[in-house]
Each structure stands twice: as structure tokens, then as C-alpha cells.
Write a structure and sequence with these properties.
Blueprint (H helix, E strand, L loop, with lengths): L1 H20 L7 E9 L6 H11 L9 E7 L2 E3 L6 E3 L13 E3 L6 E5 L4 E8 L6
Parallel strand pairs: 1-2
Antiparallel strand pairs: 1-7, 3-4, 3-6, 5-6
Length: about 130
Amino acid sequence: MHEYTLMENVIETVEQDLAAQGHDTSAGISAISFRIGMLEMHSVESFRQAFDWITKGTILEGAALDFEVIPSRIACEKCGYKADLSMGDADCHDPSPVIACPECGAVTPVQGGRGVTDIQLTLRETADK
């Protein structure tokens, strides 16, 4: 359900920002792209499913979805090991995740991998009347 709440927040932000800027969105949005931290989702598939479901009946219904997943990192203070993490290496539900360093086993905080940034939209063109 994490992905669904996140998509609801993205849609609400997009709708509010477009309305505040006075954009004509009557034709809808043809594409949306953004960067998202890997700790914001369980899987790419579940995130896409959430997008398809949550956008029904909104200005984003039918829009092409393009996003870049930004990995989390670890930087072990004990041995100096640094690396990007893969999806599932850290618990996305934990507000302050830690993992064992793969080199020395020390408990190491996970850095980054949260939030949605760089949202870009492509508005559908309104048909001439």
C-alpha cells in the first residue's frame, strides 16, 4: 500500500501546482516523469500498478509513466566500505534503516533513497474547436 499513498500524494501535488499556475489541463496529461528513491517502493511492478490504479479518473489517467529509481547507499564508518544498495537490501518501511556492512559486518545506516523529485509533465494538446 506504500506505493498507493505515494502516488496519491504525487497526483495531489501535480493537480494543485497546475491549478495554482493556471494551466489548462482539460485535455489531461500525456506523460509524467520523475526521480524516486528506492525506499519509496517495494518493487517497480507494484509502483506501476499503483500508478495505473490511482490515476483512474484523474488528469493523469492514461499518461505514460517514466521514472528513475535513485538507489540508497551505505558508507561504513568502521571499514570505509561504500556502495549503492539494490532494491530489497533495506527495509522500505523502516524510517531509519540499517544493514550489516558486507565487508566487516558492522551495523551501517542506509543513506538516501527517499522522496520524489524532478517531476516533469507533458500536457495533452487541447483539440481545436
